[in-house]
Design a protein that fits this description.
CATH class of one domain: Alpha Beta
Strand content: 5-15%
Strand order of the largest sheet: 2-3-5-4
Number of strands: 9
Number of helices: 30
Distance between the termini: 48 Å
Helix content: 40-55%
Radius of gyration: 25 Å
CATH architecture of one domain: 3-Layer(aba) Sandwich
Mean pLDDT: 95
Shape: globular
Low-confidence stretches: 1-20
CATH superfamily of one domain: Collagenase (Catalytic Domain)
CATH topology of one domain: Collagenase (Catalytic Domain)
Length: 664
Amino acid sequence: MRIFLLAAVSAAAISGAAFAADKPMYGTWGVDLTARDLAVKPGDDFNKFANGAWEKRTAIPADQASAGVGYDVYNRSQDQLRTLIETADASTPIGALYKSFTDEAKVEQVDDAPLKVDLAAIQAISSKAELAKAMGRAHGGFGPDLFSLDIYADARTPEINTLYIGQSGLGLPDRDYYLTDGFKPQLDAYKAFAERALEMTGHADPAKAAADVIAFETAIAKVSWPVADRRDIEKSYNPVTLTELQAYAPEVPWADYLAAAGITGRDQVVLGEKTAVRDIAKLFAATPLETLKAWQTVQGVQEMSPYLSKRFVDSRFEYVKVLSGQTSLRPRWKRGVQLVDGSLGEVVGQTYVAKYFPPSSKAQMVELIANLKIAMAERIQKAPWMAPVTKQAALNKLSKMTVMVGYPDKWRDYSGLKLDAGDLYGNVRRSGAFEWAYALSDLGKPVDHAKWGMTPQTVNAYNGGLENKIVFPAGILQAPYFDPAADPAVNYGAIGAVIGHEISHGFDDQGRKIDETGKLRDWWTAEDAKRFDSQAAVLGAQYDAYEPVPGMRINGQLTMGENIADLAGLQVAYDAYHASLKGKPAPVVAGMTGDQRFFLAFAQAWRDKSRPDSLKQQMASDPHAPSNFRVIGPTRNVDPWYAAFGVKPGDKFYLPPEKRSRIW
């Protein structure tokens, strides 16, 4: 299949047009200066100074939760993928999956016939033991589970993959949606969806059953761990034998449950949210079987509605739009591209990088990352809170940090996935089973460090944590994050800060607990930790005071790791930019100094305008702060920013030097 796609769209034939970059995409040197609101002082709101005019003139599209750079690059990537996907023949996996989604007439004709088969299996369940097996089978097929199952490196033996069991079971994004009055509209919308789902699937008393489902999920929410606690890698590493697990949470037949998921012969597993697993097991035992079956039905309908007829799609959107604030469903082609992208990521990715990611961009990024690692090493050496022994350990970890850019060296094999242009529902189910089998193939085996956790076209980046690697897919390496034709100050301020962000995760409040081999081991001294925590508390208190949505402040503890990484990324990128000048002063461009261009590029890279409901969802469940404070929060702690824009006492976000966080 890959040969067909590459042959159909020859990289050599299109590379000249696809890779052309004679001038920057934004402005004359890489930043859109028309986005600025010059009526706002930089020290009063640097985000509005850099992006305020854009924000005023920009309307959020009806089918989006927000607008901004992230969506701009994502939509550009989706358009690029569309040109690759729509030209694929229906006899290929890409063509078959896309055609099955875009053939609306066939989807309407089939309606919910395949769903009825799955729901009939739920209704046939006559005991909790059978239901536990059904939850296990859900990982390779259809339906929800009260527990999450994940396979990745063992934190104590990071060269071997193990099984992690954690909390799950909620239909809403986070426990706070059930427990906080501020999310009552979203909870009401979910309850209404649950009632519709049960009514549409023939339940005898959908109103009562929906109320029972919501009460059950609320009870799960009460015993679930908050997101801030789930960040702690030490708290979330609780190895137990299967015998110990059965004694700890006896209400679930764990061996049968795992066997149904395709997992046998395991003597040890790792519990994530340990007490939550125990308490959810108790709820499983205490809840009537009919309520559990109604819960499975509601969540199963929610899972499969996007692949059913219009009445199911619309019912689900009535609920989803209350979460996001969207007023319109995305066009079908966009949803189809997303399905193909998520199901056949590296098949699409192989052609994507051939057309849109030239070797020159990869070489430029590799050099940029090398410069950022040098700058990070210098920051480590100068860190006043680190003892010499800790600095040496940090430098050792940094030197062994693997860098991956653009795309994997070895492409994944999808030949075992069978797709049918006339069977959308079946395609989605088979794809899910294929992904679970792929995950299971790693269980108990050595970690393959060459594998990627993101596809090449993903607009994101990540730090591999237990694998001590940083990964930058081709998808994010587009303007304004990265533009080969832009002024160097722009690339250092934008993608450079992203690189620094990911590097620094190896040395933050959680990275300190993972050594150079990826092993869970705190390699700091107690005194290091105290000094670090003191500076982290300064930063956390700043974020606790920010109020992006009236009446809802940022959780500085939940966002701590990402806030530290944002600040570190900006500082390390700034150092690397100045090192790249090799002792020469930065040129003045369009009347702006190098530092001004650098900070403006940083601000532009976080340009975003979100709907209030979308922001509330992010603040409840996402460890990243809202974008405007990813601009304001770091810059006000960086001394050169003050000099670059003349920020002085009296400006709203001015911080006296002694109150700035000095982590890095």
